[in-house]
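#structure-requests
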Amino acid sequence: MITVATRVATFEQVSSVLHALAAFVTATRIYGADHPRGERALVQLRGLIDSLPDGTRVLADDAGLIWEGLPLGNSSAFAAVHACLRRREAAGLEFRAGGSFHTARWLASDGGGARPPADTIVLLDSLHEAVIHPHPELAERLPEFRESLALYDETVRGLESVMIAGGTQGVLDTDAIGRIARRVARSVCRHGLRVLAPIELLQQSTYTWRHSVNVFLIATGVLQSLARDEEELAAFAEAALLHDVGKAVIPEEILNKPGELTPGEREVMERHTEEGARILLAHRDLSRLCATVAYCHHMRDGGFGYPNPKVRMRPGPVTEVIQVADMLEALTGHRPYRAPMSFGAAVQTIRATPGMASRAAALDLLARTLGDLAPGANVRLDSGERATVVGPGASADAAQPIVRLTADRADQALGQTVLRDLSEAHPPRRIVARILPRAGVPDGP
C-alpha cells in the first residue's frame, strides 16, 4: 500500500538520500555487488532514509526529479537517480524506514529480472501516485524553476572553479566571472526575483561557496533598482560575486569549521577582506569596485567590524547593499551552531547591530525589495492560507497589510479573487511567513 507522509521532509534530507542512493548505484556498477564501498554507501543510505518522514516521495518526469512540486536541479547525483528510474520505467520513489534494500540493489544492477516487492524503497508506477499535493501555482512554472536552478548550478560550479584557481594560483578566470555576472544580470532584468528561488530550496546546504552564491544573487536582485541599465547591473553583480574571493586563501579547516570560531581562528578568517582586495587589484581587467567591495563589506562605523584602516573609508551604496545582503544571508541561512532567523527578525538584527546606522538606506532598500510588505510578495498567514501582498492596510502593524488570498488552509488554489485587509478580518489575521517570489518555500515565522 502506498503511504502518505504526515510531515514534510526538508530539501536537505531529500537531497542527502538521493546523493547516498546515487553513491550506492555508482559503487555497485564500478566495483560489483556486495563490494565494501557499496555496502558502506548502503549503511549511510539506511540511516538517511530512517530520518525521513515515512512516505516521502520523489517524482521522475521527462526532464528530471521533482519533490513536493519543485524541480531538484541537474546535479550529477540527481541525474544518476533519474536515469535509473527512467531505465526501469518507474515514475518515482517512495521511502520507508526499516525495510530491506532489494529495490536499491535492483536499481543498481545492469541486468533484468522481476521488480522486487516493496521494501525501504517503493517504485511508483504513475505520475499521479508519485505527486503529493504539489503547490498549485508551481505546477505551471516548472520550466521557469528549471531555468533558475540551472543558472544557480552554473553559478556554483563557476564560483568554485574561480575560487580554487584563486587559492592555488592567485589567478582568476575573469572571462568566466564576467559571463556569470552578465547572465544573472540579464535574468534579473528580464524575470525579476525569480532568480532567488533556488536560495530557499538550498538554504540548508553546507556547501562551501553556497553562502557566497546566495549573497551574489540576493544583492544583484536588490541592486537592480540602483543600476542605470543591464550593463551597469552586470558590473555590480561582478563585485557581488567576488566579494568573498579572499576566502580562497583561508585554511579549509577554518573555512569549513562546523562550530563557532575561536578568537585566533576568527582573526585568520577576518583576513579574507584584505586578501580579497589584494587578489582583485592584481587583475587589471576587473573594476576597482570589485576590490573595494571585497575590502569594505565587513566595515562598520565607529571602529566596529573589520578591517580597520588608518585612513577613514566610507563604503559606497553598492558595497552597502552587498554588506546587508551578506548579513541577511548569514542570519537567515542554516548553521550547525544556531537556527535560522526569519526575514523580519534578521532585518531588525542588522538594524540594531553597532556601527550599521549609516547602512539604513541600503537595509531599507533590501527590505522593500524582498520584504513582507513589498507589493507582490507571497506570504503565509497564521490561518494557514497563502496570499499576495497588495499594499499597506488600515493597521499600523506591518504584519497586517491588504492581501489577495491565493490558496486556502488545505493549500488549494482559489478560483476567485479575494482581497482582504488582515486587520479587519474576523478574527484578525497576520503574516507569519514570507515566501520569496516564485519560490514557494516559506521563510519561517
